[in-house]
Amino acid sequence: MITLSITYPNSEAATFDWDYYTRTHLPMIGPRFAPFGLVMASVLRGVEQPDGSAAAYVAQCLLTFSDDQAAKNALGSEGGKELRDDMPNYTNIEPVVQFNAPID
Length: 104
Description:
By secondary structure, the protein is an alpha+beta fold. It is built from three helices and four strands, in the order E-H-E-E-H-H-E.
């Protein structure tokens, strides 16, 4: 298993349309990535840091795939391109994307 994290750093200039993201963008993920071995998807909304200051991240999307090649194939697919092209519809944030492996 491999988990792809897509993290949206917070800043004063950051915009993120949660309504569009949840109603339009998220429903696009399953149909485009399931053929490539998507096992699970979850989204976390940044609320605040322990001291009460603004969250360091607006959102984190975690996409778990059967293996790293499946995740790479999904990202490189036409569906992956569609998802990337849709980003300006909900945010101006450049996300940080990385592959994450579980600890054995």
